[in-house]
Amino acid sequence: MTIGPASLEPPPYLPRSVRAGAWEITALSDGHMRLDGGSMWGVVPASMWRAWTPPASDHTILLALRPFLAVRGKDVVVIEVGIGSRWEPKWRGIYGILATETLEGSLRACGVAPGDVTHVVASHCHWDHVGAQVVERGGKLEPLFPNARHFAPKVEIEVAKRPGHARAPSYRAEDVRPIEERGMLTPYEGTFEPLPGLRCHVLGGHSDGVSVITLNEDGAGETAIFWSDVVPTAHHIQPPYIMAYDIDVVRSFDVRSRWLERAAKEGWTGLFYHDVDHPFGRIAKVGRRFAFEPG
Ligand SMILES: [Zn+2]
After folding, report:
1. Residue 2: predicted pLDDT
2. Which of 12, 48, 55, 79 can bridge 37 by disulfide, Cβ–Cβ 3.0-4.6 Å?
3. Could you write out the DSSP letters of every residue in 170-201?
4. Phi, psi (deg, nearest 5) at residue 250
5. Ligand 1 centroid from CA 210, angstroms
């Protein structure tokens, strides 16, 4: 089916859930942001993307910042944390950061306190994805989740701490250092399971180590896939619709083609981080194109 244009204003937060095997997965919210529409759409003509994600007068489009909570028995997992609160007013303005919700607030709405979280899994270390895992308290930077083991791609941790590269503005070392210094951070590579049935696949393309994260990939019942910035919104499901931020477009096209094909074939439930209106949805193949079915 064809979905309508993205909302121009943040819709109210609803803690909707889906299941994947024994996992209950709930959409959280760390608010919204606005980024330049052209940057979000790369070589896709504005005459096309303006109809799908209508821009404001400053050419920005509204994006969700949507972490997910995955609970299975004693495992309380946060997948991606959000942009966080450590932002000067100047940068809040430039990136259109709208604190309509916070990660902690939406977690508490689900009955989960930060101390209850056992695992925090990041797909990559861009600041709009990992900023919320570190909070400032009394001038000190501390982990938001004091009892959680944190996971992030090894190459992303390295890139986040290395200054002076082309994509350095997309990273902040202090989003990872306070976690790493306390020995709470496990780097991962290749295909890695933080827990049985929770699997990270390092793909690259969008960034050096961006990953998709699957839940219940081999088990009976549904499988879910967290698309991260590999497929940032439900409007970006055709393989050539690649953001201008991506560092390796050829690789992005290859991994997007393969994983969208796989998700469609297997009927996986997609979890979307930046889509304003659709936290969940499936990909289907219709002829040579992909179609989106809201979940
Ligand atoms: Zn990113």
Report:
1. 75
2. 55
3. G--GGGTHHHHHTT-EEEE-SEEEEETTEEEE
4. -65, -45
5. 7
Backbone angles phi, psi at 268, to 5 degrees: -70, 150
For 127-169, write each residue's pLDDT tens digit. 999 999 999 999 999 999 999 999 999 999 999 999 999 999 9
Phi, psi of 200 (to 5 degrees): -100, 135
**Measured in angstroms, how far is the CA atom of residue 229 from the centroid of ligand 1?**
5
Which alpha helices (DSSP H) does 241-287 contain, by range?
249-266
With H, G, I as helix, E, B as strand and everything else as coil, classify residue 165. coil
Contact (CB, 8 A) for 213 and 228: yes
How much distance in Å is there from the Cα of 220 to the middle of ligand 1?
31
C-alpha Rg value of the chain to the nearest Å: 18
CA of 34 to the centre of ligand 1 (A): 14
- Which residues have CB atoms below 5 A from the ion given as ligand 1? 126, 229
- Show the DSSP H helices in the chain as ranges: 37-41, 46-52, 89-94, 103-109, 127-130, 154-161, 177-181, 249-266
Distance 268 CA to ligand 1 centre (A): 22
pLDDT digits (tens, 9 = 90+) for 213-243: 999 999 999 999 999 999 999 999 999 999 9
Lookup: tokens for 122:
């990041």
73 CA distance to ligand 1 middle (Å):
30
Ligand 1 centroid distance, CA of 124 (Å):
7
Q: What percent of the chain has pLDDT over 90?
A: 99
Of 47, 58, 43, 56, residue with least CA distance to 6? 56
